[in-house]
Design brief:
heterotetramer, A alpha/beta, B alpha/beta, C mainly alpha, D mainly alpha, B: alpha/beta, C: mainly alpha, 15 helices, globular
Chain lengths: ~525, ~325, ~375, ~325
């Protein structure tokens, strides 16, 4: 693969038959350059791993390519001929398939309908949709990615992973020659991820070109033929994957040598039990779960998507109800289905999806951070808020966690990058000084730098004597941060590993026992 | 760009909205009478409004009209506004008698002659020129004639009433008049009258009348609180073969109130037995006479009570009295 | 309820467009700053974008009409206009609380009617058997000598207290239905509207209840010193509501719940209770407004405020309160109410044939709404 | 399995409730459970039912249309101009009627989709100004229609009244349209998530606009059906019908937040249910002061029941997240 890098090294001529080329593409918002003269070309039948921190310009570049945004300068060539998309439709027509990071499915429609929403197959000489044909074709497309669900199923009944795969199948159905995968695996189970990778490899053998964007650098290394690294809108490195092991990718991304992806382990568990869950059961979701979290301990909860770990956390915290079992904080029994009780007892819950459950997207950063601890700033009877104190406290937290924003008071949460949004969620809870922290996939879809910060924040909390239940499907991060790892499978705890016995394959084996989660 | 265009459009619209009205003061030094009426949604009020507005105009008054569409508070605010325009006299068709008093007090304070049309003020706290018709009595007259017809049949009949909007005093008064008669001849009825809500809405009237007839096919004595419902009644009874002239076996004894065109035609043709009539034009004459006199004499708070006893136009007295009914005059273009 | 088909969040939301995944820089083209008359446009933009937009609009409207309508500025007329603001303001503020939770309360009107009737029944000094002997309360609550509290020393205050309690109870019923049983607010309040309006008419069998004690009527137009009592009440409620929304725990949580109920629940906010309270406040305000209206009309009316719903919600929405929740300020409501009252007053003064009044009213509302859209767009660009 | 059975019932509470109401009144009131009465109820549901169909479309895309009442009046005025003043054939009357409905529907569509005014306000303006426009023409004098129009109401095909047939036709057409055409399915998509719809390259403004046009036409048609029945149009014609229509639709399970609901059975059941209750109260000859009280109460409990059912369904739905019932 060849790519030209203005000013860095000998710029090479783009090869004959490049599937796609960016030539000095620039783009800026309000005079702030987001893409600086990016030149890059993509070879047929190859996978290009595009990496970079949030805000580096990946999505902007892809949006330019996908016709969502127009470049301020530079040109694009599609198979050697000039290419100027005016709208997403043009890109689609030109054979570029864009799998967006956030899902664009209509939950109230069936899988089949979602696949063909843009052009339904109709019965001859009528406006009526040919449901049978639609179902058949849908089944074929789903089969391609090994997804076995009924075309008639409503999307709202699907798991996140299944939805993601449907989104992908939808793009495959358009049979483009160039694919853009933007963070496709965030909500996939290990098994589903495997399926996806097979699909991508198959596409490659069919001479299709793939751009693969991900924060999970391991995946990039595993999948890509070449990598290209963006930093602050500039193409800072590019070359065969072989030359770019993960550590080098990272140092290119962050511009300095990061000691490692994980901070040194700071916390150590103590005797005192903070959280004790006994025989927690809810038919169809979890069965007889027992677990404890000690003072200063980080308990990792590993399990595949759909193993019931998120549901478990929601029940412990009281978001969902459960039929049997008890949750004790210290030695006080926690009432069921009452998050407020949990919070009063010093519990905090960082949920897996920031947008729906974590943040008030249109509300200012400060107000978001203040949300949980608010009562502490209100006068007893009147409920009158001590606003100066509140403002100071939130601002302080925001700085502590290095939340990058122009104004905490004015800027709405939705204007932040994923990493900073996640920090806002953490700040919201930390302001209430929790003794027990439940975190669910806290590093999903955020960049390496932000991940590092999140690990540090959680580690620090544990060091100060709080207990943490850390849910994740990225095993290596658990191995790094946890003192103990519990493995969950189909609603049951099937294994427990002390830090001394940590070993990747053993944990994995436990997680996969009885195969992956079953689907009817 | 779009921003600027939009701005222009919007500005234009506002301007349009503002220019549309013509200034009031442009009018010369004519005496002005303010006229606030409750609504124009039935033939009856339209005719009443027309009668007054025209008579006043004929007498060289300038008339400022306000429609408060049944909203008591709005009518209050309207009259307040009118009083500040120092008009020479105010006539209102009040939303109800109580409001007539509240507004009357204001008019008295403002020292402006005040006339109340058609609805009796609930008490005499405010000095006013009042022309009223007694809905209850007139309804009773009409229903009483129906009862006489029923007696002739020599059998019990099944009575039904189409009731108006229970928030409207006319509807309530007319319903009471109906029940006065019902109680007067207890032996005449097969049972308790069937009540059919209409909310003064033809569609509601139609639907509920159909349901009522469906449930009680033997209804043969029907009083409607307003004449404007006759087409509805026809469309329900006709398919059942019950839209027959009086005298025929299947005839439903029919009565109404208002005295509009349709009613006149129906009595003439023998479908309708009787309808209660308010002598609308006479009322209009009376109120305008009174206010003219008061304004002329420079009285500030004149007081006078004028009754329109109204009457029931029936098959029996049609020949003699039909021209006293405003509907018939409209019908015959007089 | 989301009845908005334009990008969800107007001005205050900042940026009518969602910057999208992990915002690589803010989206949307920059403001077209490279145009002539920049200063003028900036002034225009400032006026357009300011919090006080609707107020400016009202003033502009008033000035524009001045030449046509000298009597518009007549002291008496101005006084009337101001006096018309307060009752509407009070009830509209109540509605505002509910709108912030992304709900709606259609039952406020019948709430006012019912409380008006009940209040009057309690304190009426005498009533005519001919009118009332048929009504269900006759003999028990009502006699020739009036209601149970008639002539009592503290009769009036007690009656008002009872009105407020009942109003709040109606609100509570709505609130519980919406918050606990997750019933659609529109349907809940539509049915309670039918129900209580029917009850209000049933109790006195459609009769208005007159002869209320002077101590009550005086609330309608009386003054304390130079200040009209309704003004005191209205202003009091406005200030109270403003503080409640902007300065208290409840206020913050109300906005949070209106913006994202799920996140709010998980953040430990008693969502159901907050929503219920919003409806209770709506009911309370309705009852209070009912006191003012009944007093100025000097009677209890079973049909009070029957046609007012549109003004109540309209005044809020015109001023930018979003029907999809999370947005709304008392100042906005105030301006919206001023706008509607001004509109009604001018239409009243203008000597228009009755039908064209509706047309003009429609056009003006349209104009105002459209200007609001422009400002939303401008704001979106500006961000 | 138990849960599946109960789910089966739960999914159809609207229908169950409907039957329940019908049977109860059937026992309470005379000649209620008769074919004749069924016809009466359907024929009386027809005009508001047709309007409800249009309203359902608007609600499906998360909008609202307050102007249907005024559109009914305006189109009635147009019809009267054609058949009364110009003395043209009733068929031209129908054309004029629907034409006006279409025009004002388009006006709403323009205000909402092109100018971006909130539907509530946009249609509110049409409601207020539209009524004024009508009165401007009629001077609020009531309109009487000739037999050529009113006779249409008495026409029967195969023993079934014409207006019932029209209603059935409209419902069938709308139901098929929503279930089997691209346009119909896309309406659901827009109602579910306008942003995603835009990204998917759907013509969102056109889709939304179309619903207001449809609603306008339905309002006009419904108005015409009712004119044929009552033969006379007073100045208040159609007022508040917007609320009746919305209530019927929502009672039939159409969500005000868009994306959820059906014309058949949903909106149909909602409409007829309200009608059945009203008819039952009259047939039973309940004191008219009490009738609206009972009416309100019954609808309230219908909605409550529906809400409880949704909560229940959610619980059941939660059970099979894991798809591991054992």
């Amino acid at each position: 693969m060849h790519a030209s890098m203005e000013g860095r090294g000998p710029s090479m001529e783009a090869p004959e038959g490049a599937a796609f080329q960016f030539l000095g593409v620039t783009k800026s918002f309000f005079g702030v350059p987001v893409l600086r003269e990016v030149s890059l070309s993509l070879r047929p039948g190859s996978v290009l791993g595009l990496v970079g921190e949030n805000g580096a310009g990946k999505s902007t570049l892809m949006n330019v390519m996908g016709g969502v945004l127009r470049p301020d300068g530079g040109r694009m060539l599609l198979g050697g001929t000039p290419y100027q998309p005016q709208e997403p439709g043009d890109a689609r027509a030109a054979g570029i398939g864009f799998i967006h990071q956030e899902l664009n499915l209509f939950t109230n429609l069936s899988v089949a309908e979602n696949m063909f929403i843009e052009s339904f197959p109709t019965l001859r000489r009528t406006p009526a949709i040919d449901k049978r044909r639609m179902a058949e074709r849908t089944r074929e497309h789903l089969a391609q990615i090994g997804l076995d669900i009924s075309p008639g199923a409503l999307v709202e009944t699907l798991s996140p992973g299944e939805r993601q795969l449907v989104e992908i199948a939808k793009v495959l159905a358009m049979q483009p020659r160039i694919f853009i995968f933007d963070e496709p695996t965030t909500s996939l189970t290990a098994k589903e991820t495997g399926l996806l990778f097979e699909v991508i490899r198959r596409l490659r053998t069919r001479r299709a070109s793939i751009i693969y964007i991900s924060h999970i650098l391991g995946h990039v290394a595993e999948l890509a033929d070449e990598v290209a690294v963006l930093r602050n809108g500039e193409l800072v490195a590019t070359g065969p994957t072989a030359e770019y092991p993960v550590p080098r990718m990272i140092s290119c991304m962050v511009g300095r040598d990061l000691k490692s992806i994980f901070p040194p382990k700071a916390s150590a568990p103590q005797e005192e039990v903070l959280l004790r869950v006994e025989k927690l059961s809810q038919p169809g979701i979890v069965r007889d779960v027992d677990l404890t979290v000690h003072k200063g301990e980080i308990v990792g909860l590993f399990g595949l998507m759909g193993s019931g770990r998120t549901e478990l956390a929601r029940m412990i915290f009281g978001v969902d109800r459960y039929e049997r079992g008890t949750v004790r904080v210290g030695n006080g029994l926690l009432p069921r289905g009452d998050p407020r009780a949990a919070i009063e007892r010093g519990m905090a819950f960082v949920t897996e999806n920031r947008r729906e459950e974590g943040l008030l997207m249109n509300v200012s950063i400060a107000d978001n951070i203040g949300l949980v601890a608010l009562p502490e700033f209100a006068r007893a009877v009147t409920g009158h808020l001590r606003r100066r104190r509140l403002q100071e406290a939130t601002a302080q937290k925001a700085q502590e966690l290095h939340i990058k924003a122009t104004s905490y008071e004015a800027q709405p949460a939705k204007s932040l990058s994923g990493g900073n949004q996640q920090k806002v969620v953490l700040a919201k809870w930390l302001l209430a000084a929790p003794r027990i922290l439940l975190v669910d996939e806290p590093t999903r879809g955020i960049d390496v730098g932000a991940k590092y910060d999140v690990y540090t924040i959680i580690g620090e909390l544990a060091r100060r004597g709080s207990g943490v239940l850390y849910i994740s499907s990225e095993l290596e991060e658990l191995l790094a941060v946890a003192d103990r790892i519990l493995v969950m499978n189909r609603g049951e705890l099937v294994g427990q590993f002390e830090r001394s016995e940590f070993a990747e394959e053993r944990v994995m084996r436990a997680a996969f026992r009885q195969g992956d989660e079953v689907r009817p | 760009m779009r921003f600027r265009i939009g701005l222009l459009v919007a500005a234009g619209l506002l301007a349009g909205a503002l220019v549309l009205p013509r200034p009031t003061q442009a009018a010369n030094k004519k005496l002005t009478i303010a006229f606030s009426f409750q609504d124009l949604e039935t033939e009856f009020w339209v005719a009443g409004h027309k009668a007054i507005a025209e008579t006043l105009a004929k007498r060289g008054f300038k008339v400022i009209e306000k429609n408060c569409s049944k909203d008591a508070n709005l009518q209050l605010e309207q009259v307040k506004g009118l009083l500040t325009q120092n008009v020479d006299g105010v006539i209102i068709i009040p939303v109800d008698g109580e409001l007539a008093v509240t507004i009357g007090k204001l008019a008295n304070q403002a020292q402006i002659p005040y006339g109340v049309f058609n609805r009796p003020p609930s008490n005499k706290d405010a000095k006013a020129l009042v022309v009223v018709a007694d809905n209850r009595k007139i309804a009773a007259d009409a229903v009483d004639y129906m009862a006489q017809q029923a007696k002739k049949l020599g059998r019990k009949v099944t009575p039904a009433i189409m009731v108006g909007d229970l928030g409207d005093p006319n509807a309530v008064g007319r319903r009471q008049g109906f029940y006065d008669v019902i109680e007067k001849y207890p032996e005449l009825w097969t049972g308790k009258p069937i009540e059919i809500p209409t909310k003064w809405d033809a569609n509601v009237g139609l639907q509920n009348l159909q349901s009522a007839v469906q449930a009680n096919p033997n209804i043969d004595f029907l009083f409607t609180s307003s004449d404007f419902l006759f087409p509805v009644i026809k469309s329900v009874l006709a398919p059942q073969g019950k839209w027959e002239k009086s005298g025929s076996a299947k005839h439903v004894i029919l009565g109404g109130l208002d005295g509009d065109k349709t009613a006149c035609g129906l009595i003439r043709d023998g479908y309708l037995d009787s309808t209660g009539v308010q002598n609308l034009f006479a009322e209009a004459e009376m109120i305008t006479d009174a206010i003219t006199a008061a304004v002329g004499a420079g009285e500030k708070t004149p007081e006078k009570w004028m009754d329109d006893h109204g009457f029931a136009l029936t098959q029996a007295n049609f020949k003699q009295r039909h021209l006293d009914m405003w509907g018939c005059r409209l019908l015959e273009g007089k | 309820m989301n009845t908005e088909s334009r990008p969800r969040e107007p001005a205050a939301g900042g940026g009518a467009r969602d910057p999208g995944p992990a915002a690589d820089g803010p989206a949307g083209p920059g403001p077209s700053a490279r145009r002539p008359h920049a200063r003028l446009r900036r002034l225009g933009r400032h006026l357009l974008l300011s919090e006080y937009f609707v107020l400016y609009l009202s003033i502009l409207y008033m000035l524009a009409l001045g030449p046509f309508l000298p009597q518009l500025f007549a002291a008496q007329n101005l006084a009337d206009m101001v006096s018309n603001i307060w009752p509407l303001l009070v009830v509209a503020i109540g509605q505002n609380f509910v709108l912030i939770t992304a709900g709606i309360d259609l039952s406020q009107t019948s709430n006012m009617a019912l409380t008006s009737v009940i209040g009057a029944v309690l304190i009426v000094t005498s009533c005519d058997p001919v009118l009332f002997s048929k009504c269900p309360l006759w003999g028990t609550f009502l006699t020739e000598h009036g209601g149970p509290l008639a002539g009592m020393a503290l009769g009036v205050p007690i009656a008002i207290l009872i009105m407020l309690v009942i109003g709040s109870l109606i609100g509570w019923v709505n609130g519980v239905a919406v918050a606990r049983f997750k019933m659609p607010a529109f349907m809940v309040t539509l049915t309670t509207m039918m129900f209580f309006s029917a009850v209000a008419i049933y109790l006195p069998k459609s009769e208005n209840i007159q002869n209320l004690p002077h101590a009550f009527n005086v609330l309608g137009k009386g003054r304390i010193g130079p200040v009209p009592i309704p003004l005191l009440v209205g202003a009091g409620v406005a200030v109270g509501a403003h503080l409640l929304l902007s300065r208290t725990l409840f206020g913050r949580r109300l906005y949070a719940v209106g913006t994202n109920p799920v996140a709010s629940t998980i953040s430990g906010i008693p969502t159901a209770r907050i929503i219920t309270r919003a409806y209770v406040l709506a009911g309370f305000c309705a009852a209070l407004a009912s006191v003012l209206y009944s007093a100025r009309l000097e009677m209890g009316r079973p049909t009070l405020a029957r046609t007012q719903f549109i003004d109540i919600v309209g005044a809020n929405v015109i001023a930018g309160v979003s029907l999809s929740g999370g947005k709304g300020k008392i100042t906005w409501t105030l301006f919206g109410v001023i706008f509607f009252v001004l509109l009604a007053n001018t239409l009243n003064l203008l000597d228009l044939p009755f039908y064209s009044i509706d047309i003009v009213k429609g056009l003006v509302i349209f104009g105002a709404a459209f200007l609001d859209v422009l400002r939303t767009r401008a704001a979106a660009q500006g961000h | 399995m138990g849960s599946r059975a109960s789910r089966g019932i739960l999914r159809n509470t609207t229908f169950v409730l409907f039957v329940l109401v019908f049977v109860v009144f059937g026992m309470l009131a005379r000649n209620f459970l008769t074919l004749g009465n069924l016809q009466v109820i359907l024929s009386n549901s027809s005009y508001i039912g047709i309007i409800t169909v249009g309203m359902t479309f608007v609600l499906l895309v998360g909008g609202i249309d307050l102007s249907v009442g005024s559109i009914m009046y305006l189109s009635a005025v147009a019809t009267s101009l054609v058949v009364n003043d110009l003395e043209l054939s009733p068929w031209l009357g129908v054309v004029a009627c629907l034409g006006v409905g279409l025009a004002f529907g388009a006006l709403n569509a323009f205000a909402v989709t092109r100018l971006g005014i909130v539907p509530f306000i946009a249609t509110l303006v049409t409601m207020i100004a539209g009524r004024g426009l009508g009165l401007l023409v009629t001077q609020s004098v009531q309109l009487d229609f000739p037999d050529s129009i009113t006779l249409l109401a008495t026409v029967r095909l195969g023993g079934v009244q014409l207006n019932i047939l029209i209603y059935a036709l409209v419902v069938a057409a709308a139901a098929l349209f929503l279930a089997y055409t691209s346009w119909g399915r896309r309406l659901y998509a827009v109602g579910n998530d306008p942003e995603a719809a835009r990204k998917a390259g759907l013509k969102v403004p056109r889709l939304i606009g179309s619903t207001y046009v449809l609603s306008g036409v339905c309002a006009a048609l419904g108005g015409f059906v009712s004119i044929a029945q009552i033969g006379r149009v007073p100045a208040g014609f159609g007022r508040n019908n917007e609320f009746d229509a919305i209530a019927a639709a929502v009672l039939g399970g159409v969500s005000l937040f868009g994306g959820v609901g059906t014309v058949f059975p949903g909106a149909l059941l909602g409409t007829v249910m309200i009608r059945v209750i009203q008819a039952g109260l009259v047939a039973r000859n309940i004191d008219i002061y009490i009738q609206p009280i009972i009416m309100g109460a019954i609808i309230f409990f219908a909605v409550l029941l529906d809400a409880l059912r949704n909560l229940q369904l959610k619980k059941l739905g939660r059970r099979n997240i894991m798809k591991m019932e054992t």
